[in-house]
Amino acid sequence: MKLRIWMAAVAAMFFAAPIAAQAQTPDGGEAVFNTRCKACHDPAIERAPNRATLATMPADTIIEALTSGVMKPMASGLSETDKQAVAAYLTAARPGQTARGRSPAGPIGIDVKCQVNPPIKPTASDWTSVGLETSHRFQANPGLKAADVPKLQVKWAFSMTGGSMPTVIGEWLFITNRSGKFYALDPATGCVRWVIEGVVSRTTPVIVKSEISPSGWATFVGERNRTVRAFDAQNGKEIWRSAQLDANPIAGITGAPVVAGDQLFVPLTSGEEGAAHQPTYRCCSFQGALVALDLKSGKTLWKTVIIPEPLHDTHKNSAGIMQQGPAGGAIWSAPTVDLKRGLVYVATGDSYTDVDTKGADAIVAIETKTGRIRWSNQVTEKDNFIVGCEDVQKPANCPSPYGPDYDFGASPIIFKLANGKDILLAGQKSGSVYGMDPDTGRLLWTTKVGGGSALGGIEWGMAADLKRLYVANADTMNLMDDVLRPLGKSTFEKLPPAAPGLYALDPATGKVLWRTPAPVAPCHYAGDRSRDRTGGACLRAQSAAPSVMPGVVFSGTMDGWLRAYDAATGKILWANSTTERTYDTVNQVKGQPGGSLDGLGAAIAGGRVFVMSGFNGAAGTGGNGVNVLLAFTVDGK
After folding, report:
1. pLDDT tens for each residue of 498-515
2. How far apart are CA 3 and CA 583, in angstroms?
């Protein structure tokens, strides 16, 4: 699914059998790429990142992935020379810029330091975690009024590779990115308060007041390599670093860690769906889990594996490799903590094998103190999926039956109804939204807002204010199918008609209160779009998580448009094409283009709206290589 970011997608990089060592030069890397990678990446197919996206990854990140990370099983037989040559070629490294050493300024831009760094002081308008309280994504004190929204303009921009959604507290903004730079910025100007190298992450930092930090403020980040790091938010000094939370090299952290009391809850996911494409891979062993860490030390308090059935050998595939299962149940999104009940809720992904499991495509309630599963509700059975099984030439490890890839990728939301009762709300890639009893998991209602598909339905998240639930429907793959089928490039069976747009639902009943279709509008992707899977098609899929303030919902589409909707009626109040213009950024990049809006949506804080433009997920369109963080203010002041 799209939430696999690049972990599963990049697993297509070395599907072929190991080859002999190549030269140590970038030219040798080109030979490896042409022999082993080009068929999947140039142009990109399936979830594989295109050549331009690979070029944005740090060379160290590619080497690490091949050596000890998500690509390790596929890199069997490659020498260190091979790995460095491929990394050098993919990142366009040349003499003077080695595969293991970019310049301190990074691949793009020059960091402009702030003159003064004031003490961190919280305000009523802060956005300090990915979903705020109970994953509502609701900013009750935005620092601007609904009447101000039509006057929003870009005040500043900041270039970075694969940036996450930011968090904001007072005069501080925190953001990670896949280039390995963890930034603290001034939200008013975009200047750099501090930067830490070597933090490869796409998770949204969480900021909390804590005595473990000398300044009194701590920030926590989940890294791609299955570790969590704690820093003093004032100066960026490391406080602790956890052990690797899973032994599987293909495991990782995609959902943001969440703090509750003296615990830090960390969801684990994997790229095994991509690794399993290789016939020599022993599919599959990863089982999704939630880990509770001690906030003070980073030590593991408990680890709960979501799949209840034991892992065991099953059968040999056509390549003679023994298979195993059950596997899957990855947790792609941030968990949701329910302090009243002492529970933490997680939403899980699909199964990787044809061994039945109750842990996949489920909402699971776990006791915060013990890690014991209180209840689990699986909404889709036998959703068995690995990459490539919809192709004419299927991989040897394809499960049977083969499922639709209907993961949960959005964090569950706890909502208090008018009658005082709570309801748990969850959205799935099937296009279905569910209302559940948070005490038992009993299903109360289901509403279908879209056709659903592997890259459709509800992708990254939902939002809720005090009255309504807001649901963005992607139906991304449905739209891509519409584009690719006439060109003879689609490998999918005909999918349901696409219905991308923003919906408002009654949380008590699931009734649709209003629906605003995603408008057909122009986009202006920069660069060579022939490497884009769709040739640069403007997909209006609404996959990014919405964000809400009193009276207004912000929601972006993959064609690069950010829009503000009237929360009561769905009327579009304001729209901005982030691809219509280029940006001269604070970190001194001239003419930086925007791209698709995809991922964890906007952060609203201190009278500003922050959004990342240019994310290139599994849909493989609108990435423009490097992302740009945009700060909108009233009249651009």
Report:
1. 678 999 999 999 999 999
2. 27
Identity of the highest mean pLDDT range in 27-41, 272-286, 485-499: 272-286
Residue 21: Cβ within 10 Å count: 15
Q: Is the distance from CB of 409 to CB of 460 less than 8 angstroms? A: yes
Q: Which residue has the tokens 């990089």?
A: 13
DSSP 239: E
pTM of the model: 0.88
Spatial separation of the C-alpha atoms in residues 264 and 95, rounded to whole Å? 44
Residue 26's φ and ψ, nearest 5 degrees, are -55, -30
| DSSP class per residue in 354-389 | SS--SSSSEEEEEETTT--EEEEEE-SS--B--TTT
Q: Which residue has the tokens 């999947």?
A: 40
Q: Could you give the CA distance from residue 78 to residue 218 in angstroms, rounded to a whole number?
A: 40
CA-based max dimension of the chain: 70
Residue 186 structure tokens: 């001034």
User: How far does CA 46 lie from the centroid of its chain?
Assistant: 17
Residue type, 418: A
> What distance in Å separates the CA atoms of residue 524 and residue 594, rounded to the nearest whole number?
9
SS3 479: helix
| Whole-number pLDDT of residue 88 | 83
Contact 210/232 with Cβ under 8 angstroms? no
In a 10 Å sphere around its CB, with 0-12 CB exposed, 13-18 middle and 19+ buried, how is residue 256 labelled?
A: buried
CA 215 to each of CA 186, 479, 529: distance values in angstroms, whole numbers, following the listed order: 18, 49, 47
Q: Alpha-carbon dihedral of residues 601, 603, 608, 614, nearest 10 degrees?
A: -40
CB 162 within 8 A of CB 615: yes
DSSP letter assigned to residue 26:
H
Say whether pLDDT at 317 is over 50. Answer: yes
**pLDDT over 70 at 73, yes or no:** no
Three-state secondary structure readout of 392-438: CCCCCCCCCCCCCCCCCCCCCEEEECCCCCEEEEEECCCCEEEEECC
pLDDT at 102 exceeding the cut of 50: no
Return the structure tokens found at 354: 């044809």
**Are residues 215 and 234 in contact, defined by beta-carbon separation less than 8 angstroms?**
yes
Which uninterrupted H or E stretch holds 516? strand 512-517
